[in-house]
Amino acid sequence: MRKKLDKIFAFFICGMTVFSILVLGFVIYFIVREALPLFSEVSVLDFLFGSRWMPVDYTGTVSFGIFNFIAATIAVSFTALALALGAGLGAAVFLAFVATERLRSFLYPFVDLLAGIPSVIYGFVGLQVLVKLFLKAGVPTGSCVLAAGILLAVMLLPFLVSSCCETMLKEKEKYELVACALGVSRWYAAATVILPASGRNILLSMILAIGRAMGETMAVMMVMGNANLFPRLLGKSESIASVIALEMGTAVYGSTHYHALYAAGMVLMLLLFLINGLIGLIRSRMEGETL
Amino acid sequence: MRWIGTFTKIWAYAGISAVCAAVLFLFGYVFFQGAGIISVEFLTEAPKGLVLGEEGGIWPAITGSLCFTGTAMVLASVPAAASALYLVFYCRSQRLYQAIRLVIQCISGIPSIVLGLFAYSFLVRDLNLGRCIFSAGVALAVMILPFIEVRAEKAFREVPAELVRSSYSLGCSKLYTITRIVLPACRGELVSGIILGGCYAMGATAPMIFTGAVAYAAVPDSIFSPAMALPLHLYLLVAQGSTSMDTAYGTAFVMMAMILLSSLLATAYARRSQNRWKRS
């Protein structure tokens, strides 16, 4: 009897695991199924590299090109990453080298609070504060890629700070005594030994952060202006996720527009799978080296 | 060459002050702007006004958000905990382990808006459920599944191996070991992981825009009816422009307070029920 229960439980656990794996398959299947019909009407190249997006034929022809959206998604993620690294890496150095154990156990959860704020609230505060500031500074309407980049950077901070600090603490443990024994000052050791030594792990968290930034919808949508333009730092633009969120409600079920939005979602999903695959590759190579 | 050290020092101090300033500013801004709006009426009435939401309260949005979050937590926690158990206690092949990890990482990499698309074509259209709490709940559940799984797996791994091995060597089955030793030992982390996942789901807007959340609905009476949700309500209020800013600040305040309180409670609970082998 007991043995039977044990078997049933093992079966249940396996089943649930298979189910979780199938979830990924399910998502991919449904997105691809809805996206494919588009490519019988629009060629893949036109879709990826065309820059005209006219889903409804008010003015003659319809046209589906998402080049600007892809460019905007990438531009805003990299802007955000650059800004977040500037502040986040500094903060991580502080936490790893200056803060005592006690201060760190207070500052960690404090910075982590940022991760708990929903993205709509980021968008809302960004709209009320950042966009108004940009408007005052002379950017027409105030919405721009830089504003979205700043917001996203703040959203990436908690993640970057904690992962970078963790790596640096590990490296510090390895090298600090040696550096001390050689009479190297703490800050010099931090800059020339420990930062470069944690470089690869930092790169890994940077790629992870890029992945997160690309999938972000609400905060970006609310402050980026949403105009189909090639992204410039102080100009409006529109990311893939925002196009989907904004137009899905008005797209007729089964129309080319509807399929085009799924295809845009598929492109976004593929971009992120690429990033995750890259992370897996780097990670397994790193493990291979340390073994 | 000394400048490089000095530069790092300045960078470190500037970095931490920028980060702390961002945290203080965001919380301070929302709390100061929103605190004045909160009243009993705001919390317990439905939205009213010529432009909807300009006056009145957000009660249906609060209950709706709780329903969405609850559905997602229930749907996600069982498969997440089960796959964590599988990875830690059942999986014997290293290669299979790597593969499952990669799949879970890929699920966590799917952008939330794409999960919304998935739930729309699968549940809203194919299964003909229409926009409802359940459809959006599924999308949110997929979103938080990897989140809970990672936390659960970490907790299971931290159970000392000798504890598990002694249980096996006393002849206890895996089922007995897991239900009597591992799960009670990890209860705090599991519960807090699920609640934190819930907080994450509560703030997400993108997956529910076209799968379940609507601009106005009464307090939901079943999980197959559409409902209001706090984040979407906030977004719509902001989109309406300056007349509904007051209620928007109030909504943001309520949402942030709910999320912050539940995540603090979850963390406190996890810490309180922390195990002997981790204190020291």
From TrEMBL, chain A:
Membrane topology: Multi-pass membrane protein
Cross-referenced InterPro entries: MetI-like, MetI-like_sf, Phosphate_PstC, Phosphate_Transport_Permease
Domain (ABC transmembrane type-1): residue spans on this chain: 70-279
CDD domains: TM_PBP2
Residues that span the membrane, as ranges: 9-32, 66-99, 106-125, 145-165, 202-225, 260-282
Localization: Cell membrane
Keywords recorded for this protein, A-Z: Cell membrane, Membrane, Phosphate transport, Transmembrane, Transmembrane helix, Transport
Family affiliation: Belongs to the binding-protein-dependent transport system permease family. CysTW subfamily.
Function: Part of the binding-protein-dependent transport system for phosphate; probably responsible for the translocation of the substrate across the membrane.
Protein's UniProt name: Phosphate transport system permease protein
Organism lineage: Bacteria, Bacillati, Bacillota, Clostridia, Lachnospirales
Gene label: pstC
UniProtKB/TrEMBL annotation, chain B:
Family annotation (InterPro entries): MetI-like, MetI-like_sf
Keywords: Membrane, Transmembrane, Transmembrane helix, Transport
Record-linked CDD domains: TM_PBP2
Bilayer topology annotation: Multi-pass membrane protein
Superkingdom, taxonomy of origin: Bacteria
Ranges annotated as spanning the membrane: 12-38, 58-90, 102-122, 128-148, 190-219, 248-270
Key word Nucleus present: no
Annotated ranges, domain ABC transmembrane type-1: 62-266
Localization, UniProt: Cell membrane; Membrane
One Pfam match: BPD_transp_1
Family recorded in the similarity comment: Belongs to the binding-protein-dependent transport system permease family.
Protein's UniProt name: ABC transporter permease subunit
